[in-house]
Design a protein that fits this description.
Number of domains: 1
Mean pLDDT: 96
Radius of gyration: 15 Å
CATH superfamily: D-tyrosyl-tRNA(Tyr) deacylase
CATH topology: D-tyrosyl-trna(Tyr) Deacylase, Chain: A
Low-confidence stretches: none
CATH architecture: 3-Layer(bba) Sandwich
Number of strands: 8
Structural class: alpha/beta
Order of helices and strands: EEEHEEEHEE
Distance between the termini: 13 Å
């Protein structure tokens, strides 16, 4: 499972000219499910993101989590995080999970985040053509892969 996490001042997702998810201060999580992913990947990644100390404390140091700052999370599915550009100029997505599996683990990821944060998580619409708006804070952008736990 892969995630691109962006600390944001605000973010929203629009589908068919309708805002479907919207947050203020918090994290925009672009999430991709790989064909080898399991519930273990879901739990590890969700826990890591929720506990990640990337918000500033009173001394300006990144020492607080999204929970500590009472932030929000917006999760957007993005299978293109599994793009392979090894051959040619057209990306291959053979490592991304099939849609049914991806949707199931995407939903489990959201459920796990809601459980850990004890609040509702905002989302995009799985497999939809989405317009994602954000104001990046910092900018702080972090790449994570549950198969490469760095």
């Amino acid at each position: 499972m892969r995630a691109l996490i962006q600390r944001v001042i605000k973010s929203k997702v629009i589908v068919d000219n309708q805002t479907v998810g919207k947050i203020g201060k918090g994290l925009l999580v672009l999430l991709a499910v790989g064909k080898e992913d399991t519930l273990e990947d879901v739990e590890w990644l969700a826990s890591k993101i929720i506990q990640m100390r990337i918000f500033s404390d009173e001394n300006g140091k990144m020492n607080k989590s999204v929970v500590d700052v009472n932030g929000e999370i917006l999760v957007v599915s993005q299978f293109t995080l599994y793009a392979s550009t090894k051959k040619g100029n057209r990306p291959s997505f053979t490592e991304s999970a099939p849609p049914d599996m991806a949707k199931h683990l995407y939903e489990k990821f959201i459920e796990h985040c809601e459980k850990l944060m004890n609040k509702r998580i905002q989302t995009g619409v799985f497999a939809a053509d989405m317009k994602v708006h954000l104001i990046n804070d910092g900018p702080v952008t972090i790449w994570m892969d549950s198969k490469n736990k760095e």
